[in-house]
Design brief:
Layout (H helix, E strand, L loop, with lengths): L28 H4 L8 E7 L5 H15 L3 E7 L2 H12 L8 E5 L3 H6 L7 H6 L9 H6 L1 E2 L2 E2 L2 E7 L1 E5 H6 L11 H11 L7 E3 L7 H11 L5 E2 L2 E2 L4 H15 L12 H7 L3 E6 L4 H7 L3 E4 L11 E9 L7 H16 L2 H4 L4 E2 L2 H4 L2 H4 L4 H5 L5 E2 L7 H16 L5 H16 L2
Parallel strand pairs: 1-2, 1-3, 8-11, 13-15
Antiparallel strand pairs: 3-13, 4-5, 6-13, 6-14, 7-11, 7-12, 9-10
Length: 424
């Protein structure tokens, strides 16, 4: 497989075996998904949407099933922690394979290289699902060696959140958040008062650095893997890590040794002025009723604007060959492209132009800010097993942010470990 130049991360954690979530309330699966059992062709659809996004997709499926009487989409949620293990069991023949499933963009190369996914180019053409209906970044992100393996649902890049009350208290304009490193540092310093346990930007030492660190590397003009060679120890990567560690040790706008989600807790408490995370955080902020702003990620790097993102894509297993099932599946996907405003309500930005260019979408608070970043979003390297190859990187980033290693040494060590994994 040709290795394209993309930057990114693995999004999935360690996976454990689990079973599919069952429909509740005693309904049959077809009834729960908005149609009568036994009507028309049934399309089995798997997704890992076990959080607040699950009901959003369920609503889309229900509305589709009600809109016609020829196809039933049987929507089954598999918890994220169990998802790819369950997918692997299905692909190996130990479970029934679904007709269509959601797959993260960083997972597609692994399954495509093993010939487990269908090239949907011809299938999409027959259904008149075309590239010009989607964000170019999203569409080409699901291509490998000229073959189209996914129909994009969304791109979820890193997003910049900030506390408007803290901005005002520090004499900053809450309607004009920082757009570059200089403005970011100035704002962070103005909002920091360690005596009150209040900080301008709390640096996480774990997740979501898998989004933050690659973003700054890309903004520095760097790549993590280029033409099959690990570049974790490049000057651009070392500078990105040094910048993050300096926020703790030199600029002192962040407390040290932040534990998992510690930065989220402080943001919710009004003690963290600026926060970088994914668009999935929106509903948590809304429920907490905090006065927050949202904007594209500032250019914290030295060369250009860029942001790391992942994506959700509809993929079809290679084992699905029945033409009637394929036609029913693409009919559903065409419907989703035109009717995914419900998905946007979770904070995500669908990549269908019919949605993200619509007036209704543009009036939303967060979602247009996410879509503004589509053009310069970068994805994970198109290599198999990116999750394994990237694991040493996140381990060494963590050690540097905890003050246990010099950034340059950490990146050199990460590169050596990753090279061994990549060349196995």
């Amino acid at each position: 497989m040709k290795k394209k130049k993309f930057l990114g991360i693995a999004m999935t954690a360690a996976l454990t075996l689990g079973s599919l979530a069952a429909c509740s309330g005693g309904e049959s699966k077809d009834e729960a998904n908005g149609n009568k059992s036994g009507d028309g062709t049934t399309v089995t659809f798997w997704a890992p949407f076990s959080g607040p996004d699950g009901p959003r997709m369920k609503t889309i499926v229900e509305e589709y099933n009600k809109s016609q009487d020829e196809v039933n989409v049987d929507f089954q949620i598999v918890p994220q922690s169990e998802y790819y293990k369950t997918v692997d069991l299905a692909m190996s023949g130990q479970k029934n394979t679904p007709d269509v499933m959601i797959m993260h963009g960083d997972q597609i190369p692994t399954y495509a290289e093993k010939n487990l996914l269908k090239d949907v180019t011809e299938t999409a053409e027959k259904a008149e699902i075309t590239e010009d209906e989607y964000s170019e970044t999203a569409w080409t992100g699901a291509q490998i060696d000229g073959k189209q393996y996914g129909i994009p649902l969304d791109i979820h890049p890193l997003v910049f959140y900030y506390n408007k009350d803290m901005f005002e208290a520090a004499g900053l304009d809450p309607e004009n958040p920082p757009t570059n490193r200089e403005e970011f540092l100035a704002a962070a310093k103005k909002m920091t008062d360690a005596s009150k346990n209040q900080y301008g930007f709390v640096v996480p030492t774990l997740w979501p650095n898998q989004f933050i660190f690659p973003t700054i590397v890309a903004q520095n003009g760097g790549e993590l893997i280029e033409e099959g060679k690990v570049k974790y120890d490049s000057p651009e990567a070392v500078e990105a890590l040094a910048f993050l560690t300096d926020l703790i040790t030199e600029e002192k706008v962040s407390p040290p040794n932040v534990q998992q989600d510690g930065e989220v807790t402080l943001f919710l408490q009004g003690k963290n002025g600026m926060h970088l995370n994914g668009p999935w955080m929106m509903e948590q902020w809304e429920k907490a009723k905090i006065n927050y702003g949202v904007a594209p990620v500032p250019q914290l790097g030295t060369e250009k604007q860029a942001v790391y993102g992942n994506s959700h894509n509809f993929v079809i297993p290679a084992a699905v060959e029945d033409e009637k099932t394929l036609e029913a599946t693409t009919d559903f996907l065409k419907y989703v492209a035109d009717n995914s405003m419900e998905w946007a309500k979770s904070g995500m930005a669908p990549t269908s132009k019919a949605v993200y260019e619509s007036p209704e979408f543009q009036e939303m608070k967060q979602q247009p800010q996410v879509a503004k970043q589509f053009e310069y979003t970068v994805f994970s390297p198109q290599i198999s097993n990116w999750g394994q190859v990237s694991e040493p990187l996140w381990q060494e980033v963590n050690l540097a942010l905890l003050g246990k290693k010099d950034p340059k040494q950490a990146m050199e060590d990460a590169a050596k470990k990753a090279e061994q994994l990549l060349n196995k």
